[in-house]
Amino acid sequence: MINTKEVIETNEMIEKENLDVRTITMGISLLDCIDSNLETLKKNIYNKIYESAKDLVKTGDQISREFGIPIVNKRVSVTPIALVGGAACKTKEDFAEIAKTLDEVAKKIGVNFIGGYSALVSKGMTQADRLLIESIPLALSQTDLVCSSINVGSTKTGINMDAVRLMGTIIKDTAEATKENDSLGCAKLVVFCNAPDDNPFMAGAFHGVTEADRIINVGVSGPGVVKTALEKVRGENFEILCETIKKTAFKVTRVGQLVAREASKRLGVPFGIIDLSLAPTPAIGDSVADILHEIGVEHAGAPGTTAALALLNDQVKKGGVMASSYVGGLSGAFIPVSEDQGMINAVEAGALTLEKLEAMTCVCSVGLDMIAIPGDTKDTTIAGVIADEMAIGMINQKTTAVRLIPVIGKGVGETVEFGGLLGYAPIMPVNGFSCDAFVNRGGRIPAPVHSFKN
């Protein structure tokens, strides 16, 4: 039972501390849309998404008004398109036609993004998988709302290095294809290891084949709430620090649970999971880096940062699972550079490097996220960075991801502006020593020994 004190606390978190429901995401299965005729397939996809999600935005807005809780984004995720389009698509241009259909229906129903232009290739690639991957630069340059994700590794199967090498090229090609917009297409493309089936956050959301026909997943975010809570226990020991984070995460998750249940009931779609991720925005006071500063490091990247982030991530999850039985997705803390003003400040101060960010990804929710790099970075170097991050995920049995943006025509010391939630970013230097011989070997890095569990 929610009491008056909780209501007052929640109102303060919303009004003063940037608490929001970051997204309501409806996952939609497109498996029943499959057809060998491309035009029929596109029609089936459009109709299924429209009929399923036509009331999503209206319902989210109603809940936001009635409960006084900001719901920032309404999104749709679909079955990985490589699975859906395999029978009909014979060329990469065919797959790009499906991307246009997704973009068209997303605009019609009014959502912010649609995810699922995806392929799952952690062990090998089908012809359809390869065609979809090769179509990504074309698809993302011709659409506005479509997001793409490729899962190239897992703890169970190892890392598909052929796919990793290919993605290095695809990211560069996507940057070139969208260079008129500062290579913005790469901001909608993410490479995963151990990608979850129920992630509501873009660009990595897709509707996993283990999910129901339709599902509602909600992502809640509250970095500002956590920072404010920690200001009240400044100088206290780690036990009090951890308890404060855990209790705050519990309260934030309760807000998400309320919204998720209400959206599920009104839309007639089953409730899936709450993703309690401290996802920052460029707004002042809505920063994960500021939480790390409050814990006691001068800037993100200073000695102690990885330990502080590990503590934060663990306590957020502990608080979340006490508030809901269905915490999932990527729950924890995100550390995107462009979307977090504190991270941007740390980069500009020289405290935070790409190598330190990689170390931090061992204990955060995702990985190297929204990082702008020089446009002349080699595709093999990008593939090497992806391989490193995938290895962290594979060995540590966690989700990791890479969303790098090689900004064509810009170099270290310059800044790129993406706008909105994507923010802006200083272009970070990348280690220039070659990994060509490594990433060009081909084949697959085997799964680790601890993967043999059955």
Automatic annotation (TrEMBL):
Xref: InterPro entries: UPF0210
UniProt-listed Pfam families: DUF711
Domain of life: Bacteria
Family (UniProt): Belongs to the UPF0210 family.
Subunit text: Homodimer.
HAMAP family referenced in this protein's UniProt entry, alphabetically: UPF0210
Name this protein carries in UniProt: UPF0210 protein SAMN02910451_02010
Source lineage: Bacteria, Bacillati, Bacillota, Clostridia, Lachnospirales
